[in-house]
């Protein structure tokens, strides 16, 4: 009787396919075509070459068939036979720089595209993701995936080395990963990387040396005799002689079973053979127990302009286009599933880590700008059509009492909370169409001579709103009707800026610009928010600008004063697109001792704005030594370059605005960067005692430590954020929200200062070679947006986090006519009551069922109740997953109301089938 092998070596063939990185997309694309050709030829010729894992992303199929459409049938054959594994993602995205909804669309599109080929690989695949968010286990479980296979974020200690003693260490390459909601998956860490079975030798002598080393390396970390070897690497060509190489290995090691395997087989074997007690790793995987030099965290600030474009693109799709298209469907318009998918796919093509992280060559990021614009154009087209369809269905007939010249318009609030604030809308107060036969001279004359006269803004109940009117003069425009040729016109246009009040969540409110006698007596007189040349104040906050341009903000509700806010900091950066490195011994430059010019630039009853200008001088660049260190591949932490003494101007123009009902202070800062090799941050000292703080991440308000682990050597402890970061303590808190500024640091300076990165300028890609990236210096004009939100110490209960989420989302408005309509002048299709801990995430229509989909997530680590109600009609409501499949978990049947409880940190999706 022969004894059974003591161990099994699972060899999984793959290639990690960065669509673009150190080469532009099309150059990688051409290599992909050759790889796929060779792969299918190998599968056809060699029956012992069992299977291939196509990197977890279905976009590879699109990219290949774009050039080889005639190969679709052959490709589908191997997928259906289980020899090519595809999905579950559309692309392999960066986890911290893409939104929760973007990740859900990624999973949905990947599943949809893979299903066309008859197979979806249920593998939570993250081979090279630069850290992983804490909600990943829950997202996997809701996708029917019970595992996560990843390469970064956890430190393996090795069973024969030491036992893990930390939440972010694992004794083995296999572990249990638990999310904040309690969801658990089997984690597979590439402890020896995803290339540990690459280029297996055929020659016996070479194979012996190879496998002696590789078997020992894997056994050092493995908890079972099932050993994983990844046969491939970045853009790795197919190993066509693998079958022969494995036969050599079998002869050399009769005690080992060498299997050309796949992930389902390997995972099944691990589950059956589980021997050692696995470590439980909880929450975010950010390489917390490392020296801090290789986390790649500063990709969060490489090419900040890309992050800003991404924030806008994601927001327009998930928080404006989808809700408005869902609203328009209730008004009779078809939901544009295919257009939205196209826009999402175009946007997601910018979401791979080497793309959105800004750590590729310049050609890559130039193409990204075009993709962002394309996706944004589609989103804006959907928004324009949808908002007009809804606005034209609103009953605006009440405004007829103000005369025929009254111009109705509708303001939309597509956030998940009731909203008030300053809205600007451009209106045509008079139009003359070319089709009417007027001469151009006559049209120009009519528009120029049109008297704007006395005007007022009113809502449907006749309540006037404080507003200002800007005459935009003569404007050319055109309609594109569905049943006629384009219809050009001349118009007299105005811009109305006013205070919109109490717009319901996911709802609308109609207003009108009225004129003449109808406007008499409707002028609103309210107190100014300007209390001096450098002080603005509302009922909640008092903001005073100091001579150096910093702000002192008093929260009247608590009496807490926050001083020295909004000081600018500049330091050298001799790192690369991946990691920041300040020159040794350098002192940071700040505007603390720089006089600023301060003046009031807007003083209206609804908003006050200060302009603060700093005329600053900063070093022009790093010294020439940095160029030599880059060419010679000197590891960035040990570089010695300093900055030159020559300076260039850095004029920063900052607008600080406070609205009458505002909970926070809005900041818009603009500057023309002409310096290289540096970083610019905005400093917000909190002076709050705390050892931990909160930060917005994907479907989670994560809790992080201010002080890093003892292993951390990097002087910098910058981290990722999405919408905000918050430091809270007894009786006071400070939330700093942003738009597309994904990097911050809570400084260990005795004041727990929140430092938000506005710009990082570097000149090389970094990593495995010398790749100059002059465009990563980000020379030219930049504008950034932040909001400072003081609160009472609990950001959820005080509404600070909700305000930070509202800050991300633009107001939407549409001009319409005077008409009857099925939609009330103040309206929202849904109403809900919820604990403050529930954050609204999405309103869309399911492509599977045609049902409305509403999604929330619980920001708190305790249960939260939700009561959901249709404002009109009845529906069947059910709880579903992020894949939005119909569910037997019914909440209500033929009802207008449903109730549910969200678990701690739970992502809750509700399907609504209207009766």
From TrEMBL:
Task: State the UniProt keywords alphabetically.
Answer: Glycosidase, Hydrolase, Metal-binding
* Stated family: Belongs to the glycosyl hydrolase 38 family.
Top-rank taxon of the source lineage equals: Bacteria
SMART domains, A to Z? Alpha-mann_mid
Q: Which residues form the Glycoside hydrolase family 38 central domain?
A: 299-372
Asked if the record carries the keyword Lipid biosynthesis, the reply is no
Q: What is this protein called?
A: Glycosyl hydrolase
The UniProt transmembrane annotation reads: none
Q: Name one GO molecular function term.
A: hydrolase activity
Q: Which InterPro entries match?
A: Gal_mutarotase_sf_dom, GH38_beta-1, GH38_C, Glyco_hydro/deAcase_b/a-brl, Glyco_hydro_38_C, Glyco_hydro_38_cen, Glyco_hydro_38_cen_sf, Glyco_hydro_38_N
Q: Does the keyword Metal-binding apply?
A: yes
